[in-house]
Amino acid sequence: MRTSSSPELEESDHQSTLQWILTRHVTPPQSLRASISPPPSRARNSPLQPTSHSDVCSPRDITSSLAAVEAGDAQIHNHLEYFSSHISSSAKPSAPLSILAFENLYKRNQHENGRHWVIHQHDHPVAGVHYDLRLQINETSSISWAIMYGLPGNVNSSRLSRNATETRVHNVWNHLIETASASTGSLLVWDTGEYEMLPYRANIEQVTDDELSDGDCSPSSNLTDSEKLQAAFRTRKIRIRLNGTRLPLGYTLSIRLLNSENRHEQPAKPSRKRRRKTSAGRLLTRETPTTSDLDDDEVADSHPNSMDVSVSALEREIAEQEDEEVRLTNAYPGATNSIGSIHQRRWYLSMDRYASGFRPSRIKNHSDGGRRMWTRRREGDRLLGFEPFFVMGRETERSVVTGRTADEVMADGGVRDFVGRKGWRPVTE
User: Fold this and answer.
1) Alpha helices in 55-169 (DSSP H)
2) Is the pLDDT of residue 289 over 60?
């Protein structure tokens, strides 16, 4: 990086660099940048030009082009073709979901009643590793939650539940993105598929097998699944089955909004907080990150207001140029918040054990008088449920579409020397 010998030259370089970033449209992707929600406004001195595949000729160019597309600085007429062309060149033969199946899945949900979903693993340098769940609500848009530890996979875990933080309404084509950059980390497709809505039951674990079967098989109305999702979202109680590639057959979630979080207005614009410097000269802030990130208070120090994050002065200046419309509507450009999504509300997410194929049984234990364990149940000749699975984080988890780890997504994007947030640990108990 070039340095100057005087404060005047240094300030000039700073302003020049900032102007170059804003006018050349190389802002990091909205779902990855340090201040995703809302994204910064961008100066446009010339009309937007369509981006073609011929513009991409190197990993660095790929990262910049993907960033421009997601930020809205490049016009793409066919997002599926554009993103598929990027990930197909990096896909491994061992990937569980073929590129063709990935494309067909997206195509058949390109309508008002589409029910596409995706879980992205996002390794952000500030927020750290977390998992973004996005559910399609109409032809163009999806509601989103950030889940720090990923979905629960062990039916007898002592930490079966998660906090899920509501984030911005995204464009459905965001489901296709798998990319990385040095300043924003990696984003990979952990799993994707189509969802199915089930009737919500307040006391699901007290329901008999017969009642459960009746409720699961008989729809309560003639509404489509996307319409049922919208209705359930408005009642703040969602029971949803995720049919995917990685998740086991029948995997079902119960998601409800905590009473303390049941607000109906978007949060106020975050105020600028006082900064301080470390001994190394880095700027630290106690601003609450507004990304799809810090969401789970199962860790004592995980509340966003208790965390210091490192942000350069240049990044801060860009992030402070907020798009007020995005903040007020809680939807990115091109997406429609037709469902009343509110930014940063905390929901309670848990595996629905009955609907996922399990039943409780009493295990004799002299020390505690016997405790309840969940075992796989049978339905006729079929054994339901599944063996436990655990979300192990960036070093282990691979993209269901390309078979790549986060490090491999970084390498394919030409990213070197990425420094991620430390301290993330998988839930294995």
Assistant:
1) 59-71, 79-88, 99-107
2) no
